[in-house]
Amino acid sequence: GLSQAELAEKIDRSITFISELEQGKKGFSLFTLAKLCSAMNIEPAVLFFPKDYSPAENKDISNVFSDFKDVLRSMELKYNITS
Questions:
Q1: How confident is the model at residue 70 (pLDDT cuts 50, 70, 90)?
Q2: CA angle at residue 16 from 26 to 37, to 5 degrees?
Q3: Contact predicate 44/68, CB 8 Å
Q4: Helix orientation angle between 59-79 and 30-40, rounded to the nearest 10 degrees
C-alpha cells in the first residue's frame, strides 16, 4: 500500500489532509475522490458496493457507474491525473 506521504504526493495534497480524511475530520470533492481512486489504482465502485455485488443483477446501477467511470477517465485526461 501507499504511505500517507506517498498518497499525499500523488494527489498533490498535504499529509495532514490525508490524515484528516482517514480520521473523518475532512470532506472531499468528487475531483479529489477521482484523484484518490486513480492514485490507489482502484475503481470508484469498490467504495460503494460490497465484494459480493453483482452488476448483472443491478443493471441500472451498473450503467450509472459505467458512466461515472467514463467521467473519471475524462478527468484523468483533462487534469493529467496519473496513478
A1: low
A2: 65
A3: yes
A4: 90
Run of H or E including 60: helix 59-79
Distance CA 77, CA 25 (A): 30
DSSP summary character for residue 31: H
pTM strictly above 0.85: no
Nearest to 43 by CA among 15, 71, 11: 71
CA neighbor of 43 nearest in space, from 77, 68, 75, 6: 68
Residue positions counted in the chain: 83
User: Which residues are CB-neighbours of 8 under 8 A, at least 6 positions away?
Assistant: 14, 15, 17, 18
Query: Residue 34 is placed in which grid cell?
Result: 477521482
